[in-house]
Automatic annotation (TrEMBL):
Source taxon at top rank: Bacteria
Protein name (Swiss-Prot/TrEMBL): Guanylate kinase
Source organism phylogeny: Bacteria, Bacillati, Bacillota, Bacilli, Lactobacillales
Similarity comment: Belongs to the guanylate kinase family.
Record InterPro entries: GK/Ca_channel_bsu, Guanylate_kin-like_dom, P-loop_NTPase
Assigned EC number: 2.7.4.8
Keyword annotations of the record: Kinase, Transferase
A Pfam family recorded for this sequence: Guanylate_kin
UniProt organism field: Lactobacillus gasseri (strain ATCC 33323 / DSM 20243 / BCRC 14619 / CIP 102991 / JCM 1131 / KCTC 3163 / NCIMB 11718 / NCTC 13722 / AM63)
One example GO MF annotation: GMP kinase activity
Keyword Kinase included in the entry's annotation: yes
Function noted in UniProt: Essential for recycling GMP and indirectly, cGMP.
Amino acid sequence: MFYNSEILLYIIVDFKRESNILQRIIIIAGPSGVGKTTVSKYLTEKYHIPRVVTHTTRPIRKGEIPGKSYYFENDKSFKKLHFFEHVKYGEYQYGSSKEALEKAWKKNDLVSLIVETDGVKSYLEKLGKQVYFIYLTVSDFSVLKKRLLARGDQASEIDKRLNSYEFKRDLHLSDELAKEAHVLNNDNWKETAKKIDEIIAKLDNE
Ligand SMILES: Nc1nc2c(ncn2[C@@H]2O[C@H](COP(=O)(O)OP(=O)(O)O)[C@@H](O)[C@H]2O)c(=O)[nH]1
Ligand SMILES: Nc1ncnc2c1ncn2[C@@H]1O[C@H](COP(=O)(O)OP(=O)(O)O)[C@@H](O)[C@H]1O
């Protein structure tokens, strides 16, 4: 009897894996400086939730680690990659691969990914209910520039970023994405961390 129920449990777990019910992805979006990387790091450090590493042609920033923050590419190497989705943001290319997603899912059934809002749409279309979409925002957009300066970004890069079409677009959500989003205000990190803890507890119980 005990043996049979063990087999049954194995079949259920295996079925869930096969049908991808267990594999989920927390997608984090929002404007530059809002705290996407900070949230992703918190998920990794506190909950061992790995981040799907994406590719970019933008220059590496102070404090970033190649292969961990991003895979840093040039225009030629970027063209050779096989992407799940890719976009131009400002003057640089960004893209995520199915291989990187599978690699992260091999480590853990719950992973995180940072993308801009067109990327969010692609993931929602392709992965549907496996996606938990967090949109980060702040009450006063003027803090974003201050945070980018405090992060040590170059002033010239900050100006280009803040004036880009994509940055301005991602200050707000389209109606279509708003329906799917869990909006999190990140004015205050302690409060944000508490809200993330609640989200993880909820996801663990689903
Ligand atoms: N669609 C898509 N967006 C990405 C990808 N990787 C990063 N991004 C987005 O590209 C934008 C610029 O990223 P980054 O240069 O690191 O600037 P940050 O927002 O200031 O940290 C952000 O909105 C990221 O979410 C990707 O693989 N696909
Ligand atoms: N709630 C917050 N209050 C103040 N500073 C924050 C907060 N959240 C993140 N930061 C800081 O703001 C800067 C930008 O955060 P980051 O996570 O890199 O943003 P993003 O990845 O969205 O561009 C970092 O220096 C980070 O430490």
